[in-house]
Amino acid sequence: MKNWKIFFIISIILLIISNITWAYQTLDLGIARNYEKITCEEWKSDAKNLESILKSFKTKNQIFEFLNSNNIKYEKIEKEKGNENYIVLGSFSILYNDLGEVIGLEPN
């Protein structure tokens, strides 16, 4: 007779613990997504600001000087054939020709 009482109490305790764990995980996921959203909005804003600054430069050397002086990471892609070369900055690329003149910006 006492066995069913013990199992019943253990079952209730496990049910309460599982519900507390579920509530904690749900709350934690909601907070994490909120921080992720804020961070993405800040990155997009920073990328737009950087893009508007880089539009004012006319040559690749001006861009490289600006990027290096501000410690901004970039990837330089030069094609052997063709007249298009790229500086990749994450969300967008700067397109320039073989003479070093900036042609435009492209989203990635």
What this model shows, in words?
The protein is α+β, with helices and mostly antiparallel strands. The chain has two domains: 1-54; 57-108, no CATH class. It is 58% helix and 18% strand. It has helices at residues 2-54, 60-69, and strands at 75-78, 85-88, 92-96, 102-107. Strands 1-2-3-4 form a four-stranded antiparallel β-sheet, with helices on one face. The longest helix is centred in the N-terminal third of the chain and has 53 residues, at 2-54. The mean pLDDT is 84.
Give the N-terminus to C-terminus distance in angstroms. 70 Å
Radius of gyration: 27 Å
Average predicted local confidence, pLDDT = 84
The count of strands amounts to 4
Quickly count the helices. 2
Major β-sheet profile: 4 strands, antiparallel
Q: How is the quaternary structure best described?
A: single chain
Approximate strand percentage: 15-25%
User: Strand order within the widest sheet?
Assistant: 1-2-3-4
Structural class: alpha+beta
Order of SSEs, N→C?
A: HHEEEE
- What is the overall shape? rod-shaped
Report the helical percentage: 55-70%
Taking pLDDT < 50 over at least 5 consecutive residues as the criterion, the unreliable ranges are: none
How many discrete domains?
Answer: 2
